[in-house]
Design brief:
Layout (H helix, E strand, L loop, with lengths): L17 H17 L4 H17 L3 H25 L4 E5 L2 E4 H24 L5 H10 L4 H30 L8 H31 L16 H28 L1
């Protein structure tokens, strides 16, 4: 299986029902993503950081994933402030940075990080099979849940297959370069990965049928939502409602 460093742990977050964590993540992410002011995303960002601390993740994993997210966010700061019309605050070689552009880039940064920490603390702490069953339990179509679980399960298998093909090509003298031969070789490698992935999918499907698969995965684990799970979900729903209401009030005040 793919390594799940955040799903393995003992914390108040890990002890919560997977369905409640999934529902809470959705409830918190929606007002953060749809907000037009900074107040709601900042509040949810603070809550997401608190939940991340409660989940007790490895610091190195959190820092690496935070950096990966914010590398993409950094590109917004390169283009949005100069591409958004508005009140100029700085001009450099014909490029004009506007106050509206800076505000928009800041809003996007806070939104991205608020959703990221909610996902990191609430979803990344759920093992993939349990997350798939939680999705089905909350009304997500079973086919979508199966697609998610199988994609997660076999991504590393496809990556290993590609690695073996690359090693085989190098043993035959292949050296990557910027030329047509290299591009054709990589195209052939990708084609072989797709063909082998298709063959493997057929074997897996036949094996599932031989084991009596009828559209549902039997599991010995059962979801059990106790009063701590219900209290947690109610608190997260209240926080999401307050964030949405605060954003609506701020928009009404500016209207």
């Amino acid at each position: 299986m793919i390594d799940e460093p955040l799903a393995r742990g003992v914390s108040p977050i890990h002890a919560l029902d997977a369905r409640c964590r999934l529902a809470a993540c959705l409830l918190l992410s929606l007002p953060a993503a749809l907000a037009q002011g900074l107040a709601a995303p900042l509040g949810i960002l603070g809550l997401g950081l608190l939940l991340t601390l409660l989940s007790r993740p490895p610091l190195g994993v959190v820092l690496r994933r935070t950096a990966a997210v914010n590398v993409f966010v950094a590109f917004l700061w390169l283009f949005v402030p100069a591409a958004t019309p508005g009140e100029p605050v700085w001009t450099f070689h014909g490029l004009t940075v506007t106050r509206e552009g800076l505000d928009l880039a800041l809003l996007a940064t806070v939104k991205a990080n608020s959703v990221f920490f909610c996902v990191l603390s609430l979803l990344a702490t759920i093992p993939a099979p349990a997350l798939g069953r939680a999705m089905t339990a909350l009304g997500v179509p079973a086919k979508f849940s199966f697609l998610f679980v199988f994609t997660y399960r076999y991504l590393h298998v496809i990556a290993e297959e590609y690695g073996r093909l690359v090693v085989a090509a190098r043993l035959r003298g292949f050296a990557p370069a910027s030329n047509g031969r290299t591009y054709r070789t990589y195209a052939a490698l990708l084609a072989m990965v797709l063909v082998r992935a298709y063959d493997r999918s057929q074997r897996v499907y036949q094996a599932m049928l031989l084991r009596g698969f009828h559209g549902r995965f039997p599991s010995l684990d059962r979801f059990r939502a106790g009063w701590p799970d219900r209290v947690f979900l109610c608190l997260m729903a209240l926080a999401a409602a307050l964030a949405a209401y605060g954003d609506w009030i701020s928009r009404s005040g500016h209207a």
